[in-house]
Amino acid sequence: MQPVETSDPDGIDYGWVMQTTFVLTIVVGAPVVTLLSLQTTLPTWGARVEFAIRVGSVVWILVALAVFGYAWRYQAGDGGGDPDEIVEE
Q: Are 15 and 7 in contact (CB under 8 A)?
C-alpha cells in the first residue's frame, strides 16, 4: 500500500508548523479564553465574540511563533538527527 502524500522538505516543514499551530491554539486557547472570560463582564453575544477573537488572536500569534521557533531550532540541528538515518552504537 502506497502513501497518499509524502513530504521531504528542505528546511522548515511549514505544513507541520501550520497543523501544529492549529491544534495547539485550540488546546491552549479554549481554556485561556474560558478562564479570562470568567473575570470579565460580557453582557451580549457581540461582546463575547469580540472578547474571544481578541484573546484568541493573541494566543494564536504566541503559539505560532513558538511552534515556528521550535521547528527552526530543530531544523538548525539542535533537535536531533535525521529520523531516517540509522545510528550504530
A: yes
Helix (H, G, I), strand (E, B) or coil at 23: helix
**How confident is the model over 10-63, as pLDDT tens digits?**
778 888 999 999 999 999 999 999 999 999 999 999 999 999 999 999 999 999
Q: What is the CB-side half-sphere exposure of residue 89 using CA atoms within 13 A?
A: 0
Residue pair 67/20 in contact (Cβ under 8 Å)? The answer is yes
- Tell me the CB-side half-sphere exposure of residue 75, using CA atoms within 13 A: 15
Contact 45/75 with Cβ under 8 angstroms?
no
Report DSSP letters for 6-36, one per residue. Answer: ----SS--HHHHHHHHHHHHHHHHHHHHHHH
Q: What pTM did the predictor assign?
A: 0.71
Residue spans per domain, the chain: 17-76
Alpha helical stretches, state H, 38-78: 45-73
